[in-house]
Amino acid sequence: MLAYGSYEPDKPVTDPGVSPVIQNVIPLASTETGVAYKPFASFQVIPGAAALPGPPRGGISIVNPSSGNYEVYACTASAIYKLQTDYSWVAIGTGYTLPAEEEWSIVPFGNFLLFTNRSDGILQYNVAVPAGVTAVSGAPKARFLFVAFDCVFAGDCDGENRLLRNSGTNNHTQWTPGINNSQYQPIPDGQELVAGAAINDGTVIVLQRNSIRVLTRTGDTRLYTMNILAQNIGCVGARTLASIGTELFFQSTDGFYRINSQGVIPIGAQRVNATYLAAISTASFFTVQAAIDPVNKLVAWLYHPTSDTGATTNLSAGLLFSYQLDKWVAFVPEAAAALAGIFQFATPGYGMDSIDSFGTLDTLPYSLDSRFWNGGQPRLAGLSADYKIGFFDGTSMAATLYTQTVVSPTDQLFDSVVPQDDAGAGTVSIAAKDSLSGTARVTSTTTIQPSGRAFVRARGKVAQGQRTIPAGTTWTTAKGVDTVVAKKGGVR
Question: Do residues 121 and 134 lie in contact, with contact meaning Cβ atoms separated by under 8 Å?
Fold first, then answer.
């Protein structure tokens, strides 16, 4: 069988276990072939969803500590919005001036949701007792925030792009250095601060443009110690950072990395980095957005490629990384399905004052203790090109899978092939040529017999199977393409 391999387009096509094209699918472990694939669901706007009033510039999904319901917030350059249970947006704060090509940084802290950017500074919103968005008096104007060691940390503060500060313990309004563990920490090198995140209760990773540092909790008045974890590696932008559990994933100028207890690990080198960097200009790095798909155990990086001459910030290409299997696939949505942003969102929950539209207590579709009223679990979500919220829960995307390339010392005549999947529809092809330097002759068919066989006659010493499965097809697993060789020739 010509098996599908791992998507590693930077490697020679003849390397064992490598496929040059694998797109719009999810990797699966296979004891037979090493890796198999299942369909990836298409993006689907929630019916009736209203558009966010402008391009998304940050968003977050949280559990309200008072109600226990999920809530979704999103920002534009000038306003902060909350998603309602009817999927409309209501502004909770307006009149802001987000710097160009930057994003809002948003973190929950106790009963508050904190927002920041370098122009408007740190803002607060009490989600338990809503009373509008207000400024945090005395707080710095910071590019980003993260929560660690029971404090709020702020980076790139007040025009000093290597300045890291933290609030007082359990007090996001206390920013006077020396009081209640609040500190003021300039960093000597590594270029500007970009982002930070805790990977456990005692360890924080701080990402700079050209350096990575680790903060370790001390348990005394010093609060933490700081050490260099890596140099000449950094993060190109906060939106390229995604985290789950004890791991971080991000893009540096030379490609993709993960950080865990083993250190800084390159995950794209000699696999996808070169292909990716050839598809995007460095000037478009600010468009790259990352989000976790906790259902399928994926990190999604979506970006605006140079081949897309449309809107300069629409996300029309991407990469998906299976963090459990250490496998990559390409993400290529249809032209009309480009996104304005991706996030990890949950469907919002309903309060007692917002369930009247479902009827009386006797006619409610679910009991009052049903999980339905709390909202759904966080999953991969996005905003469409016209800024409407949706999830990746539609029908299957159009999939394209190339097998590994097999080289034989003798000429072979392929009589037919049997796709090792249960799709039934689509095309199956054999690309054959006489030598590695030759030009491939691709023979295809859309007719797959009830037996699963497709008649594709091709001849050559170098062969590769190619499979396309149309969008909307119902299927479960694809492993490769079985070949039926009618004749083997001699060496020539």
Answer: no
Q: Domains of the chain, with CATH numbers?
A: 2-40+397-488 (2.60.120), 44-136+235-391 (no CATH)
Residue 356 CB partners (closer than 8 Å, separation 6+): none
Query: Cβ(383)–Cβ(460) under 8 Å?
Result: no
Pairing outcome for strands 224-231 and 6-7: unpaired
Question: Torsion over CA of 279, 280, 281 and 284, rounded to 10 degrees?
Answer: 170
Name the pLDDT band for 366 (thresholds 50, 70, 90). Answer: very low
The one-letter code for the residue type at 103 is E
Closest CA to 289 of 382, 154, 391: 382
| DSSP letters for 308-332 | --S-TT-B-EEEEEETTTTEEEEE-
Higher-pLDDT residue of 457, 372: 457
C-alpha 114/C-alpha 468 separation (Å) is 46
Q: What separation in angstroms does the CA of 183 have from each of 38, 175, 177, 229?
A: 49, 8, 5, 21
Which DSSP letter does residue 52 get?
P
Q: What DSSP string describes 125-143?
A: EESSS----EE-TT---EE
Reported residue count of the chain is 492
For residue range 235-265, what is the model confidence (pLDDT) as tens digits? 999 999 999 999 999 999 999 999 999 999 9
Phi, psi of 284 (to 5 degrees): -100, 5
The mean pLDDT of the chain is 92
Can you say how many angstroms the Cα of residue 333 is from the centroid of all Cα atoms in its chain? 14
The answer to whether residues 276 and 255 touch, using CB atoms and an 8 Å cutoff, is yes
Strand 211-217 to strand 224-231: parallel, antiparallel, or no bridges (unpaired)? Answer: antiparallel
8 Å CB contact between 104 and 98? yes
Query: DSSP letter string over 341-381?
Result: EEEEE-PPP--GGG-GGG--TTT-SS-TT-GGGG-PPPEEE
Three-state SS annotation for 265-293: EECCCCCCHHHHHHHCCHHHHHHCEEEEE
Taking the mean position of all CA atoms in its chain, how far away is CA 492?
Answer: 49
pLDDT digits (tens, 9 = 90+) for 310-361: 877 899 999 999 999 999 999 998 877 899 999 999 987 655 555 555 556 6
